[in-house]
Write a structure and sequence with these properties.
With 279 residues, this protein is an all-alpha fold. It contains eleven helices and two strands.
Length: 279
């Protein structure tokens, strides 16, 4: 019989046993302190989007000012450039506004050509901080070559493609028509047969750049040679007058530049392989 009865009392021995069986309370762990972000070193600036856009705006303003300067210079000395533009051809105008279009087209094209080295320099200043070391070294080394190839392309169009295709088309027209050459149509024809060729002559540099960053190889260029010639034929047809002679005059040097690009890339790959073998 329970000596404590119904009084719901606990024996001292029972209380002691319960106390010994009670689990020990957990000691609260100290809170984990998150490491503080490293303080920025003095003098190191984090470039934000606003700074990037501000730099772009600065370079665009400088480019626009240089272009406007050369535009005013060319327009004020237009009588000096005029004989080299018309090349002795008798041109007619079909309205007063065509004179403005003709002078504006001449001035803008020549001003763009004269300001091109400065524009390239401004673009280089903008993109250089964002380039990798290999890309920056490549563009810094080959920028003069790019400008030289552009000038060669312009000269090729001015001295070869334009006069030959012009005489061919005029001769074809004189067989059945009284030919009158509009000033506006003439300057459009001259620009179309010169400026695009300056851009197409950049092909070796573009191919060499893609090769330097591992996108293009000489083997891949050889594999797609047939398709590349097809693309070059389409491009030459788009940027030249619709006659076979002009297209052929453009396609032949383009094919030569494509083969030259393969040769240059192959020589570059061989030189890299020789350097890796010696290391």
């Amino acid at each position: 019989m329970d000596p404590y009865g119904d009084r719901n009392l606990t024996s001292p021995l029972r209380k002691k046993a319960v106390q010994t069986e009670k689990p020990a309370e957990k000691v609260p762990e100290p809170p984990i302190e998150e490491p503080e972000p490293p303080a920025e070193e003095p003098g190191v600036q984090v470039e934000t989007l606003v700074d990037h856009l501000g730099e772009l705006r600065k370079q665009l303003i400088k480019s626009a000012l240089v272009f406007l300067f050369f535009l005013l210079v060319v327009f004020s000395t237009l009588n000096f450039w005029f004989p080299y533009i018309v090349k002795g051809n008798n041109l007619v105008i079909l309205g007063p506004l065509e004179v403005i279009k003709f002078y504006t087209s001449i001035s803008a094209t020549l001003a763009l050509g004269l300001s091109l080295p400065f524009l390239i320099h401004f673009i280089w200043q903008f993109v250089k901080p964002g380039l990798e070391e290999k890309e920056a070294r490549f563009l810094g080394l080959y920028s003069p070559v790019m400008f030289l190839l552009f000038v060669l392309g312009i000269a090729f169009g001015y001295f070869i493609v334009n006069p030959l295709s012009f005489q061919f088309l005029i001769g074809m027209g004189m067989a059945n028509f009284d030919v009158m050459i509009s000033a506006n149509e003439y300057i459009h024809f001259l620009i179309m047969t010169t400026v695009p060729l300056g851009l197409l002559f950049e092909m070796p540099i573009i191919a060499l750049f893609l090769s330097s960053i591992g996108v293009l190889t000489s083997v891949s260029m050889k594999k797609v040679r047939k398709w590349s010639y097809l693309v070059l034929a389409i491009v030459s047809a788009l940027i030249t007058p619709p006659d076979f002679l002009s297209q052929l005059l453009v396609l032949i040097p383009m094919a030569g530049l494509y083969e030259a690009s393969i040769f240059i890339i192959k020589k570059t790959e061989d030189r890299k392989s020789a350097i890796e073998d010696t290391v």
